[in-house]
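Here is one chain, start to finish.
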Amino acid sequence: MEKTQITVKPFQREHISIINKTNEPFSIIGRLIPSFNNGKWTYEEELYEHTSYTKFPDDNLEWDDYINKENKIIFLAFIGDEYIGQIRLIKDWNKFCYIENIAVCKDYRKNGVGKTLFATAEQWAIQMSLRGISLEAQDDNLLACKFYIKQGMELGSVDTLKHVFHPNIDKTLYWYKVFPEYKVPVINR
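Its structure:
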């Protein structure tokens, strides 16, 4: 894909019929293996011998809840009139912008669409006087985890029970990007 101008627009009622278009299969190439030592999270990558593909179920939400609201918003990415990506955000109780979903159509992945949407989320969070960005991902979604790391996110915690009944997911990973003005010095215990 040649470099073309990506535009980002707030979600409106006329977008309801296309909102799930970005929910396309994605590659599962490995997993992130976290470790917690001396008060700090580190991780290694484990690549799988064979790539598999998965897809989340389509979202069926009360879409009007995201239109012209102060505590929730969806931003859609377009090239021309073609819808190619989305990021769904809420103001979370802990004064973070929580990313409920970020998705890019498969033909446009690795072309800056996700980075543009993430930057839009940061701008919105700053405008809302939030302290940073957070989200959760599964340990077997290595490509997503690598994207979050590139956006400056840090692993904040790991949950081993959230997906205990899902055979392919071992851990849920919670990622955070604290804005510089809110960074707290780490105290070793």
